[in-house]
Amino acid sequence: MPQLWGHLEWADPSRTWDWTPALLDRPDPPAIYAVAGGDLEDGDYDYAITFFQDAGGGETEASDVSTISLGGGDNSAEFILPPLPTGADGWKIYRLVPGETDLYLLAIQEEADGR
């Protein structure tokens, strides 16, 4: 089966990345909230998620971005991830830190790991 490639378009055309599409719908953005403690710098953080499938199934298009402002001692972020659809093996969480222009892969959460 051939690999299909695409990219996510942002308002800023320099913010793109490639992915191998999965046969799943794009996820809703994560619910995110600030919590006390943590060591993230003060500022605005963007997060997006994808669903992924093991065994060569690929990865969905990224969700819309959720943005959170951290500071004043609340320098950690926690998520409520959307439920996994049938056929998905987990979530990939991407983050954009203040002062950067590209999202990077922050974590891979598999269904078996719990939430």
Gross morphology: elongated
Helix content: under 10%
Number of helices: 0
In the predicted model, the low-confidence regions spanning at least 5 consecutive residues are 1-12
How far apart are the termini?
32 Å
Average pLDDT, all residues? 79
Strand content: 35-45%
What is the alpha-carbon Rg in Å?
Answer: 15 Å
Q: Can you count the beta strands?
A: 9
Largest sheet: 5 strands, antiparallel
Main structural class: mainly beta
The H/E string reads: EEEEEEEEE
Briefly summarize what is shown:
It is built from no helices and 9 strands.
What features would you describe in this structure?
The protein is mostly beta strands and 115 residues long. The chain has a domain at 28-107. It is built from no helices and 9 strands. It has strands at 6-7, 18-19, 31-35, 43-53, 58-59, 66-70, 76-80, 90-96, 104-110. Strands 4, 5, 6, 8 and 9 form a 5-stranded antiparallel sheet that branches. A hairpin with a 4-residue loop joins strand 4 and strand 5 (58-59). 17% of the residues are buried.
